[in-house]
Amino acid sequence: MAGTLDLDQLRTFIAIAESGSFTRAANVVHKTQSAVSMQMRRLEDRLGRPIFVRDGRQSKLSEDGERLLHYARRMVRLNDETLSAFDEDELTGRVRLGTPDDYADRFLPEILARFARSNPRAEVTVVCAPTPNLVECLRANDLDISIITHVDKPEHFAAEVVRREPLLWVSSVRHDVHEEDPLPLALGRPTCDWRAAGLAELERTGRDYRILYASWNSAAVGATVLAGLAVSILPESALRPGMRILTERDGFPPLPLCEIAIMRSWDHSSPLVDALEAHILSSLDNLSMATAAE
Fold it and tell me: What share of the chain is helix, strand, coil (3-state, %, to 5)?
């Protein structure tokens, strides 16, 4: 298949994928709904495959649409980065960034430092909250962009997974709390997916446990672990000095991978948000390379 894809069509396609409907996407890209529909018919004709399936009033991506979304985002992002590199006008304004506090210590310093160097007149407002709260804020347009923990849920369909890392059992290097029976745990609240995954594995292996502490606050959970009071579950990027990783040799079954994604407000976009997203991606790429080197 030779030829060139139309970036304007790809932008419209991304808007539909992120907003969930042709009508809302039309408002985002400032086109009529009929123009949006025509663009998508031409894009499907160009690819020779359907990229949407109807699901009531929503427009869901087909399997080929999911594949296209990954490439479309990369193409549009590269185009915007290229133009920005030759734009001498400094970006100004305010951008609202969300992240779970599990990632704040590891990710934010580099992201904010890089962004500030490139955009010294821009203001960044940071909100630390659990992923479900951040998703609600994005849908309410109270945030522009967020780093989230991605799971296979309908409300996360517009999120782009940008990093995968191990989810780990952790305890204190100075204590043997992991040998206690029943096992004391410090975990997230009942709706936490990491908590659900860990408890399912303990149930499967027949390990007795008791939940000693439950909190959305990763600093509180980490302090409990470091004090030798409980075992917890954390992604690799949230590990701190003084923590010990527990493996199958210690009697702890493997956990699923943690997927970290970027999610944007579907009805708000700007060069400032695009620039911050580029710095997030670059910082996470650098982190991946540093981890691989270690």
Answer: 50, 25, 30
What residue numbers bound the domain in which 155 lies? 92-294
Q: Please tell me whether residues 36 and 122 are part of one structural domain.
A: no
Query: Hey, which residues does 170 pair with through a beta bridge?
Result: 232, 245
Span 42-69, pLDDT tens digits: 999 999 999 998 766 667 899 999 999 9
How many domains does the chain divide into? Answer: 2
Give the CA angle between residues 270, 8, 150 to the nearest 5°. 60
Q: What confidence tens digit (pLDDT) does each residue in 214-254 have?
A: 998 888 999 999 999 999 999 988 888 999 999 999 999 99
* 3-state secondary structure (DSSP) of residue 284: helix
Separation of first and last alpha carbons in the chain: 41
- 53, 199: one domain: no
Residue 158 forms part of a structural domain: yes
Say whether 198 sits in a helix, a strand or coil. Answer: helix
Do 169 and 294 sit in the same domain of this protein?
A: yes
- Please check whether residue 65 is in contact with residue 51, taking contact to mean a CB–CB distance below 8 angstroms: yes
CA distances (Å), origin 243, targets 177, 221, 228, 240: 12, 12, 10, 6
State whether 78 and 100 are in the same domain: no
Nearest to 102 by CA among 42, 188, 198, 36: 188
Residue at token pair 């018919």: 41
String of DSSP letters for 204-230: HHT--EEEEEE-S-HHHHHHHHHTTS-
- CA atoms of 275 and 24, how far apart (whole Å): 23
The CATH number assigned to the domain holding 200 equals 3.40.190.290
pTM, 2 dp: 0.68
